[in-house]
């Protein structure tokens, strides 16, 4: 059987945003020898991932201080968790060593040059981390829709908002998104099998290759990935968030103009829109990033089909953009919401 190595945790072909099962055909050796890929994968992405993980930990701390009974905080908590899981891959040392730490004889493998038991353990950990990464990445595309819906109700039905958007319903909405994507993310763990071999030069290596399950169910998995879940993680959420943000923006502007007509400038009290502004900014950033990913992928479809080295570099640049997106929400909270900003300041002892 022909060995097909899967060295990328997130693979991209002509699909729109995230592809769980589609593989690249270019050899692993050519990927690992390209200095541009090494720069992005060994330096740029890990730095972004580490800084993003720290920022998301601070977000968790701010949310706990602020309280998790508020529906918007519950949704933000779910999104922050998704961002943390998404950022596992750029700082996944196990995967990085499996890809790059090789001798010349084993450069075309994705695996670990060690004893069989240790290599199998590393492979298992890597599959778990990769599955969590997929789960967070996919859930992170659905939660902005929940954010948009919550703000839509707040803006269009302010008098009924408290009775419609409750703590329990916010929890149910967030958990539903996670449960929906869970089986599809977990299925990715069965795409690869662990193999162990000793090369003619005596070098032992435990490596991963495409599983029999993947080969036997390729057509089903490929079609589900490309035509169902790929749309649900790209075009659908981007469209819903964009349309929702436009409607919310028009409504907020209309309400503001109405208040100007009713009240004088001296007596009118400007309503607080910090929550709406904060959440809509987050939703728009995510929609913009994934929309850009989709547009670039479609524009470069010939490059992706031919699997050129340039397309591999572009894949990593696009994923770096996604990682930046998963790292920037903390800064949005602090810059646009005074409550979060005050909580952050009070978290550190005054000198």
UniProtKB/TrEMBL annotation:
Keywords assigned: Cell membrane, G-protein coupled receptor, Membrane, Receptor, Transducer, Transmembrane, Transmembrane helix
Compartmental location: Cell membrane
TM regions (residue ranges): 42-63, 75-96, 170-191, 227-250, 278-305, 317-336
Bilayer topology annotation: Multi-pass membrane protein
Ranges for domain G-protein coupled receptors family 1 profile: 55-333
Main location: membrane
InterPro entries: 7TM_GPCR_serpentine_rcpt_Srw (IPR019427), GPCR_Rhodpsn (IPR000276), GPCR_Rhodpsn_7TM (IPR017452), TAAR (IPR050569)
GO cellular component, one term: plasma membrane
Record-linked PROSITE patterns: G_PROTEIN_RECEP_F1_2
Listed Pfam families: 7TM_GPCR_Srw
Molecular function terms from GO: G protein-coupled peptide receptor activity
SMART domains: 7TM_GPCR_Srsx (SM01381)
SUPFAM superfamilies to which the protein is assigned, alphabetical: Family A G protein-coupled receptor-like
Name this protein carries in UniProt: Probable G-protein coupled receptor B0563.6
Organism this protein belongs to: Biomphalaria glabrata (Bloodfluke planorb)
Organism taxonomic ancestry: Eukaryota, Metazoa, Spiralia, Lophotrochozoa, Mollusca
């Amino acid at each position: 059987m022909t060995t097909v190595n899967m060295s990328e945790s997130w693979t991209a072909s002509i699909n729109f945003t995230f592809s769980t099962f589609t593989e690249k055909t270019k050899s692993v050796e050519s990927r690992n020898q390209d200095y541009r890929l090494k720069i992005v994968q060994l330096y740029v992405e890990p730095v972004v991932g580490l800084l993003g993980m720290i920022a998301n930990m601070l977000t968790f701390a701010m949310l706990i201080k602020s309280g998790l009974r508020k529906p918007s905080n519950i949704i933000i908590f779910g999104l922050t968790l998704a961002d943390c899981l998404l950022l596992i891959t750029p700082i996944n040392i196990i995967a990085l060593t499996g890809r790059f730490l090789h001798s010349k004889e084993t450069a075309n493998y994705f695996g670990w040059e060690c004893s069989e038991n240790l290599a199998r353990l590393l492979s298992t950990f890597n599959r778990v981390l990769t599955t969590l990464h997929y789960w967070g990445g996919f859930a992170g595309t659905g939660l902005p829709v929940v954010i948009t819906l919550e703000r839509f109700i707040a803006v269009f039905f302010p008098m009924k908002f408290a009775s419609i958007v409750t703590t329990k319903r916010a929890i149910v909405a967030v958990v539903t998104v996670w449960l929906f994507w869970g089986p599809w993310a977990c299925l990715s763990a069965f795409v690869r099998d662990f193999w162990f071999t000793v090369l003619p030069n005596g070098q032992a290596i435990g490596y991963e290759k495409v599983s029999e399950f993947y080969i036997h169910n390729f057509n089903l998995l490929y079609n589900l990935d490309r035509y169902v879940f790929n749309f649900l993680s790209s075009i659908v959420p981007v469209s819903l968030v964009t349309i929702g943000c436009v409607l919310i923006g028009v409504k907020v502007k209309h309400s503001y103009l109405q208040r100007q007509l009713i009240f004088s400038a001296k007596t009118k009290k400007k309503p607080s829109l910090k929550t709406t502004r904060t959440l809509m900014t987050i939703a728009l950033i995510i929609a913009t990033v994934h929309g850009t990913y989709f547009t670039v992928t479609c524009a470069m479809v010939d490059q992706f089909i031919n699997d050129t080295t340039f397309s591999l570099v572009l894949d990593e640049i696009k994923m770096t953009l996604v990682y930046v997106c998963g790292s920037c929400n903390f800064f949005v909270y602090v810059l646009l919401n005074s409550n979060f900003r005050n909580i952050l300041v009070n978290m550190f002892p005054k000198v």
